[in-house]
Design a protein that fits this description.
By secondary structure, the chain is an all-alpha fold. The protein has helices at 2-8, 12-19, 23-26, 31-49, 54-61, 65-89, 92-107, 124-132, 138-143, 146-155, 166-212, 235-246, 276-282. Helix 4 (31-49) packs across helix 6, helix 6 (65-89) packs antiparallel against helix 7 and helix 10 packs across helix 11 (166-212). The longest helix is centred in the middle third of the chain and has 47 residues, at 166-212.
Length: 285
């Protein structure tokens, strides 16, 4: 931390003068003052993302609790805007670096328990207790029973009885955590089912798109058998079709077959009795 302070320009002399009676003179809007104020705010946020409670952070830096929460919200919003800006510009490396950092600032947790923070009833100390108990993801949380979650949360509860009978406090804690554990498990199961349905919809849409864009498909569907009109066939196919239809063996027995047509005679008169015209043509002149 000391090396970071030297790099950004934080000096011990300025801090000592600002803490002395001459402090108001050094609380100006100069560049040096802005550097020191930003470094002070970064130290406060660093303790928050390391899962230090807000009350302890407020006592450590002697800042009001509301001011700490306002600084946390502003930093998380700014980190999200910068991540979106880098995504629009195509700077994927910077966007991948800042996107989880904004979520860490919003929830004030470390990176390892960030997946558990997707459940609305889980906050810092509960997420850490569940992670230490072996529930590292929402899927593992959905597979657990409310009784198992309740036992983990009651064991890791940060509040203890200051005096008197501690049995009343323990009973109250068990009653609260029993209700919260049921809500946590139910929400985790709903989240997992929604994710599975979303994946199924994406897979079905991708398969439908693949079928539409596959070669040989027309109008979104492909008929298994195509009807070919006899008009478009070649001469050879038409000849084979006629011969096939004329073959009696190829005709169904239940079908009525008309008798074949008789050939048209070329001579209108009988061949044994020649016509006068033919006799006249055959006689010599």
């Amino acid at each position: 931390m000391r090396r970071v302070a030297d790099r950004v320009g934080v000096s011990d002399e300025y801090i000592c003068m600002a803490c002395s009676s001459l402090g108001p003179r050094y609380q100006d809007s100069s560049k040096v003052a802005r550097v020191h104020r930003r470094f002070f705010a970064s130290l406060l946020l660093f303790d928050l993302i390391n899962e230090m409670p807000i009350g302890k952070v407020s006592q450590k830096y002697e800042v009001a609790r509301g001011s700490v929460q306002a600084l946390q919200t502003q930093a998380a919003s700014f980190a999200g805007m910068v991540a979106t800006f880098n995504k629009r510009l195509g700077w994927w490396a910077v966007e991948a670096l800042l996107a989880p950092f904004g979520s860490r600032l919003d929830f004030a947790v470390q990176m390892d328990i960030l997946p558990l923070m997707q459940i609305s009833h889980i906050r810092g100390f509960r997420a850490r207790a569940l992670y230490n108990a072996g529930l590292h993801s929402v899927a593992s949380l959905a597979e657990a029973t409310p009784e198992e979650v309740e036992a983990i949360l009651v064991k890791a509860y940060p509040f203890k009885a200051a005096g008197g009978d501690p049995s009343g406090t323990i009973t109250y804690v068990k009653r609260v955590e029993s209700r919260i554990s049921k809500l946590i498990v139910a929400e985790a199961q709903t989240y997992v089912s929604n994710q599975l349905m979303s994946v199924a919809r994406d897979l079905s849409a991708a398969s439908a798109k693949k079928r539409r864009t596959s070669p040989g498909a027309s109008n979104g569907a492909r008929s298994p058998r195509q009807f070919t009109s006899p008009i478009s066939t070649s001469k050879r196919s038409r000849r084979s079709l006629v011969l096939k239809n004329d073959d009696p063996s190829m005709v169904s027995p239940s079908r009525d077959v008309s008798p074949p047509l008789q050939p048209i005679p070329l001579h209108l008169t009988s061949p044994t009795k020649p016509s006068p015209l033919s006799r006249a043509s055959d006689s010599p002149p």
